Amino acid sequence: MREVFQQSLADVQDRLIEIAELVAEAMAKATQSFGTSDVALAEEVIENDPVIDEKTVALDELAIDILARQQPVASDLRVVVSALRISASLERMGDIAEHIAQLTRMRFPDRAIPKGLKGTFTKMGELDVELANKLAELLRTRDVALADEIRNADDKLDELHVSVFEKVLSDSWRGEAAATVDATLASRYLERFGDHAVSVSKKIVYLATGDWVPVADDA
Amino acid sequence: MREVFQQSLADVQDRLIEIAELVAEAMAKATQSFGTSDVALAEEVIENDPVIDEKTVALDELAIDILARQQPVASDLRVVVSALRISASLERMGDIAEHIAQLTRMRFPDRAIPKGLKGTFTKMGELDVELANKLAELLRTRDVALADEIRNADDKLDELHVSVFEKVLSDSWRGEAAATVDATLASRYLERFGDHAVSVSKKIVYLATGDWVPVADDA
């Protein structure tokens, strides 16, 4: 029974890695489309989001099946519940990549990135992709040092998010209302993606160390 | 054993109702503070959010304890997993109420609601409070007709959300960048609260009818 459980957990882990990689790819394409007004690439991200959704639903069904058939208790049970929570966060991260792609499509053929913020948003996009890739790596290697790197990258993301508002609210800002709306929404999405990544990384650390993390941690 | 399980579920339900009522109260105060620039009321919402967080964590621990001790299977198991998901969404709805209160505090003593949008935001706030109250009622009564009412209220919320952007992007918009940022964020928060409410209502309907809802439904 123990071996069956370990094999089931390995299956759960493989699926989480696959979903994290899909999210990283979606965010890479979404932020590239946002930076270059590449509407075809944006469409691709939007069309592919249901794949991430389906894979998270399938993973949840697997986790529920493991709970039903193998009736894990104690830390084994918490590992399976963690997987359900990680899956929900990854699904939301995929949605955020889709929202960025939708901003690109909405403004096309105009640029979605407001003037004067190109460097900031490029950096934020790179950080988000880095975070998602590190999550996949953390899932794969259980190297908890990666969780610190994820937290540090999220701190940089938060600073850049604040700097977007400083720019938009400064006297030098010449953007139209549309540019202000886009900057506000994009910055919020990119920052929120980082919050989810930190939340997921804490849960993966639990899988590696057994330190249970309460759910209310991604405010 | 069956009786013990039913008693445990009744406990879970009571706690979900309590949390939903706290969320409704938080949103009522948050939107009132936002409309009247009542910074003391906003502070109250911000100070009380940890209470909602703690109660959702305690509920999750109870659900995990039920899984461990009573080892439910089939639909009983899905009911407990649903409770975990509902709890996570309610916690996020509490966070959103806090975000609205933070907007109020950030702009104080100025008004956070931009000129020309007072009526729209008042209506959106009322709809959000109505949604949260209906969720508590749905949890209490299992009257699935309430889920339709929640969906209808969310549709109205979505229309108002779109109307905020139409207003902000119209030629008649005279708001400064700060007003545009506030309108964008507040509208996004109020609309997102509705998405969570619909997502929760679907899961409560499952508790009442046994129709399982996949998790990827609040995009």
Number of domains of chain A: 1
CATH architecture annotation name of chain A: Up-down Bundle
The SSE string of chain A, one letter per element, is HHHHHH
Give the integer mean of the pLDDT values of chain A. 93
Distance between the termini of chain A: 38 Å
| CATH evolutionary superfamily of chain A | Phosphate transport system protein phou homolog 2, domain 2
Q: Oligomeric state of the chains?
A: homodimer
Helix coverage percent of chain A: over 70%
Cα Rg of chain A: 19 Å
**Class by SSE composition of chain A:** mainly alpha
Q: Tell me the β content of chain A.
A: under 5%
Q: Count the E strands of chain A.
A: 0
Family (chains A, B): Belongs to the PhoU family.
Organism (chains A, B): Microbacterium endophyticum
Keywords (chains A, B): Cytoplasm, Phosphate transport, Transport
Domain PhoU (chains A, B): 17-103, 122-203
Short description:
The structure is a homodimer of 219-residue chains. With 219 residues, the first copy, chain A, is mainly α.
